Amino acid sequence: MPKSADPAVAALETLIAQLHERGRPRVWSLVITIFGDAVVPRGGRVPLTVLQDIMARLRIEPGALRTALSRLAGDKWVTRDRRGRHSFFSLDEHGRHAFDLATRRIYAAGPPGWAGKWTVAVAAPGANAQGSELPALGFVRINGGVHMRPETDDAPDATEALAGMLVIHGESAEHPEAFRELWPSQEIAEAYHTFIAAFRPLHEALRNGSVLVPIDAIAARTLLVHDWRRIVLRDPGLPGALLPPSWPGAQARSIARDIHEVLAETSEAWLDMAGLPEPADPSALARRWRDPRQSSR
Question: Is the dihedral of CA 197, 199, 200, 201 positive or negative?
Fold first, then answer.
């Protein structure tokens, strides 16, 4: 990278290099990121050429993209249709439903609200497999067949997964420090610290006035949401009262929000030039990362 390069471009090139240094990129996951962040708000259908252009900027070979799309189609995440010589891809119902659930956490304003309520679920004796779906619903296993989760504002419905279990609902005003060890807080904290270190140069460059051209803006936005999504969907999403002191999630979220907001106009302009339909809800982008209770601010 020449010394005279714009700081934001230099930061983007570093992020692209880091993507490849981690090993073979998970191209299918990058595609899902593009769909959820940029395509679904514009109708959910995208030409293959648009995906190719973004991937090319990320130094992803066309063959790797084709393989990823074939895998996603085989797993019922995307569907393909043709118009003349051009191919288009859309999230199918399975893929759209999964990303709708994830979107609320990816663009949340902060930790979920919580009134101190808990759910404790106890599997029947000998039901070894019962409760296997609960970790994905925010539960942690305490001991044997005993599972617990804080009932936060965004807790998903677990009625079906809890069928046949003893379910106890209650409240607690005391949260001993040892209970914080139940969730993988150290692992997630390290992931947040890594995210902060990786995206701080781009954050600072943009804050200091650097501007990315449209294709660079959509590429940077893709990497940002891709790396952020990989962390936040592994984070149990604990309320603030249960988080350890100096939890880095707030700083990481602030950086992600700031970068996304700065890149929004230019990256959306690229999507316009690429021929995608206009957003169904133009104000939705501005509402991301914002507390709906503060939407009038």
Answer: positive
pLDDT at 153: 86
Question: Residue 287 — very low, low, confident or very high, per pLDDT cuts 50/70/90?
Answer: confident
Q: Which of 126-130, 237-241, 288-292 has the lowest mean pLDDT?
A: 126-130
Contact call for residues 232 and 105 (beta carbons, < 8 A): yes
pLDDT digits (tens, 9 = 90+) for 156-194: 889 988 988 999 999 876 777 777 777 778 899 999 999
Please name the residue ranges forming H helices in the chain. Answer: 7-21, 27-34, 48-57, 62-74, 93-106, 185-207, 214-232, 249-273, 284-287
For the chain, how far is it from start to end, CA to CA, in angstroms? 41
Residues 6+ apart with CB under 8 A from 195: 227, 228, 231, 252, 255, 256
pLDDT given for residue 240 in this prediction = 87
Alpha helices in 107-248 (DSSP H): 185-207, 214-232
Distances in whole angstroms, Cα of residue 79 to Cα of each of 89, 91, 136, 142, 274:
6, 6, 26, 41, 20
Structure tokens at 279: 């957003």
On whether the CB atoms of residues 12 and 197 are closer than 8 A, the answer is no
With a CB cutoff of 8 Å and minimum separation 6, the contacts of 86 are 47, 48, 49
Buried/exposed 44-68: b ≥16 CB within 10 Å, e otherwise: bbbbbebbeebbebbebeeeebeeb
Please state whether beta strands 114-122 and 78-83 pair in parallel, antiparallel, or not at all (unpaired).
Answer: unpaired
d(Cα 29, Cα 136) in Å, to the nearest integer? 18
Asked if pLDDT for residue 3 goes beyond 60, the answer is: no
